[in-house]
């Protein structure tokens, strides 16, 4: 029995629509000091509502149709803070979008998330420096130098991050960040690192400020 023309056309349209959609996995990190909660949209769909500074959301699936660009937007209420327009993203890959800077001068950046499952007893850890008033920092993990001379990303995009590195995991670990330029500053915080997990360690805020603008170290789980 042959399918009826209208039913056949509907089936073809459905199959074509499903086949033509591409998607990526997107994580969002809010690293902007003093900025309030934001909502993240892709293709006009609310995917990450009410993310506050120092927190992350996702991964969530962002879809697009064939021959159409990805389009995302970071909003505060009805105000658009930044857009993500036609990035060169590959179907099926993972990416992170970061909002950073100060409340009166916000920026956004897109990063590819390429990592493999860490070895037994280990975790993946990368570092991103988004604290504007600390030009360069060294990062210590359990009193051992892990990343050195990392610049503020807003000043030097080529030296503002460090790639995923395998570190010892399990239990509580101490991270210390020391400034390497200007006035000497040191900040310490403890984090739980679970073996097999992947993390982004990032800075935000200003060392001389207090409250929502204060310097902080944060950990985003992938």
Quick overview of this protein structure:
The protein has 222 residues and is mainly beta.
How would you name the oligomeric state of the polypeptide chains in this document? single chain
Per DSSP, the total helix count is 1
CATH topology of the largest domain: Immunoglobulin-like
Rg over C-alpha atoms, rounded to the nearest angstrom: 20 Å
Could you say which structural class the secondary elements and strand pairing correspond to? mainly beta
Number of strands: 16
Give a structural overview:
It is globular and about 50 Å long. The longest helix is centred in the N-terminal third of the chain and has 16 residues, at 5-20. The protein folds into two domains: 21-114, Sandwich (Immunoglobulin-like); 115-222, Immunoglobulin-like (Sandwich), CATH 2.60.40. The strands form four sheets. It has a four-stranded mixed sheet with strand order 4-1-7-8, with no helix packed on it. Strands 3-2-5-6 form a four-stranded antiparallel sheet, with no helix packed on it. Mean pLDDT is 86; it is low at 6-18. The protein is 7% helix and 55% strand. With 222 residues, it is mainly β. A hairpin with a 6-residue loop joins β13 and β14 (186-192). It is built from one helix and 16 strands. It has one helix at residues 5-20, and strands spanning 22-33, 38-42, 45-51, 56-64, 71-76, 79-85, 94-102, 105-112, 122-129, 136-141, 144-151, 161-168, 172-179, 186-192, 198-204, 216-221.
